[in-house]
Amino acid sequence: MYKQFKTLTAACMFTLSLAAMTGFQTAAAEEIQGSIQVKKGETLGSIAAQYGTTPEVWKKANHLDDDQVDVGQKLNIVFPYKVVAGDQIEYIAKRYKTSVQAISALNGLTDKNLQENQNITIPVKTRFVTTNSEELQQEAQQERLAKAKEKAEKQAKLKKVATAQEEDKQTSEKAETKSESEQSSSSIAGYQIKQKIDMKATAYGVAGNEQWGTLTASGTHVRPGVVAVDPNVIPLGSKVYVTGYDSPYLPKGGFVGIAEDTGGAIKGNRIDIFVDKPESKVSQFGIQGVKVYILEK
């Protein structure tokens, strides 16, 4: 009876020990994400023991010459990890903000293939580890150079985009300046200015609305430059200069158009600009404030 009790007790202790180790593995895999700060009374050995590892791997991962650590010193965590089915070294490296080189060097791996239930050590947030292997050091150097190149290329692309945006802005400002200069004179595009009106503008097209036809109220065909107006405000047939809008589908700065169309909702100081684009793009114009100059024929 005593012998059976002793055997049962031993089995229970083994089970609890295994559960504790499994619990540590799970906690490490789920919770460990960064670094720790050395507390008073702690040594590198005691810290490593807390995580089920050795001082040697902590020294390599944290680039330490010896076991000496100071209170308040930050150390990247190193912990044991059991590979599960489907694990890939690249995924593990990305998850714990480390690198394939660091994991390989710390565990003496000769290839990137991991086996299920294989025990390895993970250096969290460590891009490379101290090693005497010249080959691995070269690999780490190549990785740093590749990342530096990637960063430089990204910065070059951002600079190129910024330059293009600045050029577009300058072009737009020049167009606006030219437009304002023309507006301040007594003529625009060779036409004398008869009247200036602040108006609300919308846009219309025929694509998708073919049932309305392509003829204007004047009997002409709709085309770029045609605008719909209230004839009581702007007589049909009038040449107009429209500016002040914001649309990629109309000339920058402004355009000379002709009042040849009308609309049921175009009353008073309203103008509807024909845009030769699909309805989805025409509707992006919305309602905008514009300046309309009636020109002498």
UniProtKB/TrEMBL annotation:
Residues 157-187 are annotated as: Disordered. CDD domains: 3D_containing_proteins, LysM. It comes from the Bacteria. GO terms for molecular function: hydrolase activity, hydrolyzing O-glycosyl compounds. Keywords: Signal. It holds the Pfam family LysM. Residues 1-19 form the signal peptide. Residues 166-181 have a biased composition (Basic and acidic residues). One of its GO terms (biological process) is peptidoglycan turnover. Residues 34-77, 79-122 form the LysM domain. InterPro entries: 3D_dom, 3D_YorM, LysM, LysM_dom_sf, Resuscitation_pf_RpfB, RlpA-like_sf. GO terms for cellular component: outer membrane. PANTHER family: CELL WALL-BINDING PROTEIN YOCH (PTHR39160), RESUSCITATION-PROMOTING FACTOR RPFB (PTHR39160:SF4). This is 3D (Asp-Asp-Asp) domain-containing protein. It comes from Seinonella peptonophila. The lineage of its organism: Bacteria, Bacillati, Bacillota, Bacilli, Bacillales.
